[in-house]
Amino acid sequence: xxxxxxxxxxxxxxxxxxxxxxxxxxxxxxxxxxxxxxxxxxxxxxxxxxxxxxxxxxxxxxxxxxxxxxxxxxxxxxxxxxxxxxxxxxxxxxxxxxxxxxxxxxxxxxxxxxxxxxxxxxxxxxxxxxxxxxxxxxxxxxxxxxxxxxxxxxxxxxxxxxxxxxxxxxxxxxxxxxxxxxxxxxxxxxxxxxxxxxxxxxxxxxxxxxxxxxxxxxxxxxxxxxxxxxxxxxxxxxxxxxxxxxxxxxxxxxxxxxxxxxxxxxxxxxxxxxxxxxxxxxxxxxxxxxxxxxxxxxxxxxxxxxxxxxxxxxxxxxxxxxxxxxxxxxxxxxxxxxxxxxxxxxxxxxxxxxxxxxxxxxxxxxxxxxxxxxxxxxxxxxxxxxxxxxxxxxxxxxxxxxxxxxxxxxxxxxxxxxxxxxxxxxxxxxxxxxxxxxxxx
Length: 441
Description:
By secondary structure, this protein is of the alpha+beta class. It folds into three domains: 36-81 and 208-292, no CATH class; 88-198, no CATH class; 306-440, Barnase, Chain D. The chain is built from ten helices and 19 strands. It has helices at 99-106, 127-130, 221-228, 235-240, 296-302, 320-332, 356-368, 378-385, 402-408, 424-433, and strands at 17-18, 23-24, 52-58, 67-76, 88-97, 113-121, 136-148, 155-163, 181-184, 190-198, 211-219, 242-250, 256-273, 281-287, 345-349, 396-400, 413-414, 419-420, 437-440. The chain has a six-stranded antiparallel β-barrel. The protein has a six-stranded antiparallel barrel with strand order 5-8-7-6-9-10. Helix 5 (296-302) crosses helix 6 (320-332) and helix 6 (320-332) packs parallel to helix 7. The protein is flat, with a radius of gyration of 25 Å. The two termini are 33 Å apart.
């Protein structure tokens, strides 16, 4: 926690976890519904199998509830690699530095000096604070320059970093009536005050992938209603063309699991006959601003198409981003079964635990076998250690090749997640707090 400020989300509880744009969840967490589309088997009379199921709703009044929207052979625009976010420049105008910021300015050994994360908020008695504004956070901040401000006795400080947003397309609204900013570090230690900041507040960005296309699509009734309104431009017509749906992966046996929450969200533009066969359509939707999932997520899902992976460490070649996706896919396919009894012994293969994402991949397979899930961040790991996720505590965990984690899971600022890195010692403390006997080998 950042003092009284909420930390960025660790997960929705009950073993699930989230990142900036996705909440992975388990089908068995959903309320029982006789017509639940996630519990059906999805097939069609084609020479190829369907691969994607959309479940959600459109803006048509007769279909207000979450239901099957479409069954598709393919989908374009949901799994796309984007370049890394570009660092931005901000100017802290009319600043009186204090604490770490003052120390950086007084002891700068070079043209640029790293500061870390910086919170900008209003004072405790400011009306915008009483209205609930907690402020904005700049991540991975480097001080570039400073110069005298127009206000005597104050300086303007130029910094570079990233705005802490859930999605790179998010806007950052300037609160009405704010008259200045209080600067602090993530632990609420004072870093000064400034009269204004430039470069921070902005409108939402355009979607990085403007369209999603459902290729070889068999529309279900809600989408058929939206297609029927495709040429309507009135306010009511545009509302009927709205589509909002989760995307699920359909396996060879026709079962489906949700893998990307809210992946298709926007306004239907067009539908044309698909080259994949009579009766199928290619449907194009103008996307709302949202980051896509990594392209490699599709390759991970392909490994589950004919059933659960039968080999461990298939995640090992992946980078940190795709290891995170691997854990999410493992969670999506997780089924609740009785825990292994307390006192069981599990073996964690630590050869590839070069990052914390690798640890979550490895412990998932240690507890629940190839493709297994047992937490995707500290909050979810804590949930899983509390039971019902494959192992009843206390148990013994034999951690093979633990020297790999000892070398890599060390204290530092983690630029991958823009937060302090999760260390081996942190993981060991959590495990032992739950009564787990860890045998490091």
